[in-house]
């Protein structure tokens, strides 16, 4: 397979798998299963960063200090982007960080509550599960006439486009790295898409309409992958930098966005399960890397 074929296959499959998996989970599974996905996603992201992305970035670098500085700068960039997203949300509607109705119990009701991905834009999941929705996708509470749904679609489309560019950069560096990067992206996209699906339902979209819009948004990953492939052919010197930024993005999402949510379940049993699933996510990335290298 050519590099472009790998990129097309990874972005098409990644988009379909993440949206379809999220739809099946959000529409049919229990809310208790979502934290399982988040713990696994943390492991997959951390495994991809430390076992694959960073080693490749350092191997391609002629200046290790500059590569480390790129990683550090990327973390700061995503912090700033998330701050801008939170600031914008606080000026559109009452900021949930200062919501007087937000109690610890209500915060724990949704494992994706208050989750903001630095590239997704506003993506907190309201504690309105689709299995409590009626046939029109409304949960009985007053929805916002599509406002938050439109915000999430715009942010998600941009995020998918960036993911496509990062996947292209990884495949151009090494096929094995591309496969591992695509797997890690899908692993963290599924719980994120669950949150997006819930927000669309809360905004008044039907289940079928929400699924269709998420699927169309995922097409941006393919566009990003193809454009990234052709652009990086002309700017090959940027591949190492993009790999470092991809590592920074995954590290930030895992440490700043996903892990804090896991701390809402401090009891021993939940902690053991979380650690086990994080280890399983890391092991999956290692196995995928070994299989891809062997192939």
Give a brief description.
It is built from nine helices and no strands. It is mainly alpha-helical.
Write the layout of secondary structure elements.
Elements: H1 3-28, H2 34-60, H3 64-92, H4 104-109, H5 147-173, H6 175-202, H7 207-234, H8 239-262, H9 268-294
Helix pairs in contact: 1-5, 1-6, 1-7, 2-6, 2-8, 2-9, 3-8, 5-6, 5-7, 5-8, 6-7, 6-9
Query: What value does the Rg take, in angstroms?
Result: 19 Å
Structural class: mainly alpha
The level of helicity is: over 70%
* Fraction in beta strands: under 5%
Protein described:
With 295 residues, this protein is an all-alpha fold. It has helices at 3-28, 34-60, 64-92, 104-109, 147-173, 175-202, 207-234, 239-262, 268-294. It is globular.
How would you describe this structure in keywords?
295 residues; mainly alpha; 9 helices; 75% helix
């Amino acid at each position: 397979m050519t590099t472009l074929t790998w990129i097309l296959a990874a972005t098409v499959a990644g988009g379909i798998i993440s949206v379809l998996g999220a739809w099946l989970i959000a529409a049919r599974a229990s809310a208790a299963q979502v934290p399982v996905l988040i713990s696994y996603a943390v492991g997959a992201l951390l495994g991809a960063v430390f076992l694959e992305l960073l080693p490749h970035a350092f191997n391609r670098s002629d200046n290790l200090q500059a590569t480390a500085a790129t990683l550090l700068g990327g973390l700061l960039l995503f912090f700033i982007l998330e701050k801008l997203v939170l600031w914008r949300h606080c000026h559109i509607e009452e900021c949930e960080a200062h919501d007087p109705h937000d109690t610890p119990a209500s915060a724990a009701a949704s494992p994706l509550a208050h989750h903001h991905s630095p590239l997704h834009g506003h993506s907190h999941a309201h504690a309105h599960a689709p299995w409590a929705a009626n046939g029109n996708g409304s949960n009985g509470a007053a929805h916002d006439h599509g406002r938050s749904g439109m915000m999430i679609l715009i942010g998600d489309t941009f995020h998918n486009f960036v993911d496509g560019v990062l996947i292209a950069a990884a495949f151009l560096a090494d096929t094995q790295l591309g496969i591992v990067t695509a797997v890690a992206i899908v692993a963290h996209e599924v719980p994120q898409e669950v949150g997006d699906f819930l927000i669309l339902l809360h905004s008044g979209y039907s289940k079928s309409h929400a699924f269709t819009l998420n699927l169309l948004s995922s097409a941006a990953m393919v566009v990003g992958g193809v454009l990234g492939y052709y652009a990086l052919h002309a700017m090959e010197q940027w591949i190492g930098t993009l790999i470092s930024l991809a590592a920074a993005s995954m590290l930030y999402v895992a440490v700043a966005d996903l892990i804090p949510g896991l701390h809402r379940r401090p009891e021993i049993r939940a902690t053991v399960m979380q650690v086990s699933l994080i280890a399983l996510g890391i092991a999956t990335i290692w196995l995928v890397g070994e299989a891809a290298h062997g192939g």
